[in-house]
Amino acid sequence: MSKNGKILVAMSGGIDSSLAAVMLHEEGYEVIGMTMKTWDYASSGSSKKETGCCSLDSINDARNIAVNLGFPHFILDIREEFGDYVIDHFTGEYLAGRTPNPCVLCNTHIKWDALLRRADKLDCEFIATGHYANIREECGRHVISRGLDEMKDQSYALWGISQQSLARTKYPLGHLRKTQIREMATERGFMELVNKSESYEICFVPDNDYRGFLKRRVPGLEKEVAGGEFVLEDGTVVGKHEGYPFFTVGQRKGLGIALGYPVYVTEIQKEQNRVVLGTFDELSRDGMYVNQLNMGKYESIEGGRMDTLTKVRYNDEGSPAVIEQVGDTMKVFFGNGVKAIAPGQAAVFYEGNDVIGGGWINKSFRQNG
Fold it and tell me: What is the pLDDT of residues 339-369, one digit of tens each?
């Protein structure tokens, strides 16, 4: 019997989740490792070599850590539910003229639920992951906050996890920097982890070609959406494109059009199959509406306004904003405007280092919009 109880650790085979398991094992938890297989590379149609969290090599790397330290390791096959929910949503959002964030969606609706169901079957009180974030209990709420390592902080991707799930979740790496994790792996002789390259791709789009993925996923899509128009902000038609699903707000490269000056996608108009182009300044919006909220630090701020730092994408540094909640919608006002707000992406609200909550961007607006 361990002194701290049983804990189920999500192990992708990478250095972060592996060291999370190692740390918990050394702290006296009875660790059980779990690697989730979310996607079958053979189904992607990509010619790229199988890598990343779902590859056989990664599964074996996770199992080897468990064997070396003497704790059990299992593989959890969630390909069916992952595909039905995450991939269908990913495809549907592009077809709706939006830009999805499948990794956040997977955390929120697939991975945590799958882990907790298996944790219950294995009599594990807690689950743990290798995310760089922190969690604490305050005033009856479970609060996610930024990880110590600003370059690796992953709190943005965790806003959608429910309070019930957070109550059973641990993030062992939140108080450490990546350099420290590498040092710990080196000291313990896990050089294969130290030398292993990290993957930042969407697991089911291993070649990073989401346009090719959509074409393979939706037969006939190219013909259906071909012949759309590029237009300027004033409606002037300036060219043709291959279809609105193949563009995202903020995109500059790969537009296939030359106007003599840099232009960016400022809006997707699905119904008209139009892609609106504008200058860098025309990318700016004064605010946005965010739906499907999940509140973290506070149960609600309905009826009030609050100063925040708000992120509109994963690698966003965040911008000062005032948020105002009305039911399940947050209206967000940016004092200095924000560039390239893409509907379909996640917006996350911070108070200092703490996650107030987050939601999905529905639409952006200019002042009085």
Answer: 999 999 999 999 999 999 999 999 999 986 4
So what's the pLDDT on residue 62? 92
pLDDT of 83: 87
Does one domain contain both 290 and 254? no
Is 209 part of any domain? no
Note whether 92 and 149 are same-domain residues: yes
Pair 26, 58 in one domain: yes
Residue 202 near residue 210 (C-beta atoms within 8 A): yes
Task: Name the CA dihedral angle for 21, 23, 27, 29, rounded to a multiple of 10 degrees.
Answer: 0
Per-residue pLDDT reduced to its tens digit, 51-71: 455 567 888 899 999 999 999
On whether the CB atoms of residues 127 and 9 are closer than 8 A, the answer is yes
Ranges of the chain with pLDDT below 70: 1-2, 40-55, 199-200, 368-369
**Which domain CATH number covers 138?**
3.40.50.620
Q: Which domain holds residue 338?
A: 283-365
Q: Is the dihedral of CA 191, 195, 196, 201 positive or negative?
A: positive
Same-domain status, 172 and 230: no
Active-site annotation holds for 124: no
Is 106 among the catalytic positions? yes
pLDDT tens profile 277-312: 999 999 999 999 999 999 999 999 877 899 999 999
Active site residue: 53, 54, 124, 203, which one? 203
Considering its fold, how many domains does the chain have in total? Answer: 3
Asked whether residue 205 is domain-assigned, the answer is no
Domain termination residue (choose one: 177, 194, 211): 194
Q: Is residue 1 part of a domain?
A: no
Identify the active-site residue in 54, 106, 124, 139.
Answer: 106
Yes or no: say if 169 and 131 are a contact pair by the CB < 8 Å rule. no
Joined tokens for residue 137:
């209990």
Q: What CA–CA distances, in Å, run from 61 to 36, 116, 194?
A: 13, 23, 12
